[in-house]
Write a structure and sequence with these properties.
Blueprint (H helix, E strand, L loop, with lengths): L1 H7 L6 H19 L8 H12 L21 H4 L3 H17 L3 H16 L7 E4 L2 E4 L6 H11 L4 H15 L7 H16 L8 H10 L4 H19 L11 H21 L3
Antiparallel strand pairs: 1-2
Helix pairs in contact: 2-6, 3-5, 5-6, 7-12, 8-9, 8-12, 9-10, 9-11, 9-12
Length: 269
């Protein structure tokens, strides 16, 4: 409603205002989410979220005159901060995922996407598969990033590596992007070829190309890509080469997505 009202009367909303609105709606949702499943009392949910965040739930206990201690609402963990609130939301999602409550995960997916859609301005993030990601990336983003996570559903280790890569990139940790991309690529190739050799070894590359029918140009490109990944991803930055800037890291991230999707599609199960 509010978004349509602003559009109708050409009212501009600042990012700060949009994020404040987002937080208010998110906190309302977190209160409701605390009672998603009657089989799990709230204390279990709170403890589960603390576990995901690496926090000690005992520090939040509120002793009662009678009965067990109580815990504060999830807003307490968010501290009224935009980024902390996103962390708490991700933690809640992954707690339910860890205990096998797929229905609750689906409800969170639907709710968070809806809440973001209600924003009167671009708040700079979007929600994909249990994580928040930044919006300030190319239009190719949806096809390359979102669909790649879906393609990696059968490769949980590689999917986790790529989620780490996206998270590190969005938080400005560019030096921690290439390595998880490299590990994701290596993991998928291991599973597709049945070999456990390091990615930079010719043995694994030969097995890859034996199962993957691509043109010579693509083979050469993939070999060069692996060489680059080995230089900067597996063993860290090569001191004899130039330093990797943000634009180069971003390009490598998206190229990794394309490579992963192509390998998965090209090599039969």
């Amino acid at each position: 409603m509010l978004k349509k009202f602003y559009e109708t009367f050409n009212i501009k909303s600042s990012e700060d205002q949009g994020r404040a609105e987002f937080l208010n709606r998110l906190f309302f949702f977190l209160d409701e989410a605390s009672s998603f499943n009657d089989r799990y009392i709230y204390s279990n949910i709170f403890k589960g979220v603390c576990f995901e965040l690496g926090l000690n739930p005992a520090t939040f206990e509120q002793p009662q005159l009678t009965g067990p201690a109580r815990y504060p609402d999830l807003q307490t963990l968010a501290k009224g901060d935009f980024h902390e609130a996103m962390k708490v939301t991700c933690a809640l999602y992954h707690y339910f995922k860890r205990i096998g409550e797929s229905v609750n995960c689906y409800e969170i997916d639907v709710a968070i996407s809806h809440i973001i859609g209600l924003s009167t301005t671009d708040i700079g993030v979007r929600w994909v598969d249990g994580f928040f990601y930044p919006n300030n990336i190319p239009e190719i983003d949806y096809a390359v990033v979102d669909e790649t996570l879906s393609w990696l559903s059968d490769f949980p280790a590689a999917k986790k590596d790529m989620q780490n890569a996206f998270s590190n990139f969005s938080s400005g940790k560019t030096e921690q992007v290439l390595s998880p991309c490299y590990m994701a690529l290596e993991n998928v190739i291991h599973m597709k070829t049945g070999l456990k050799s390091p990615l930079h070894e010719n043995k694994l590359q030969e097995a890859l190309f034996k199962n993957m029918l691509v043109s010579d140009s693509w083979r050469q490109f993939l070999v060069k890509f692996v060489q680059y990944a080995n230089d900067f991803g597996r063993h860290g930055r090569n001191p004899d080469r130039h330093s990797v800037d943000n634009a180069e890291v971003e390009s490598f991230l998206y190229l990794s997505c394309i490579m992963l999707r192509m390998i998965i599609r090209k090599i039969p199960n």
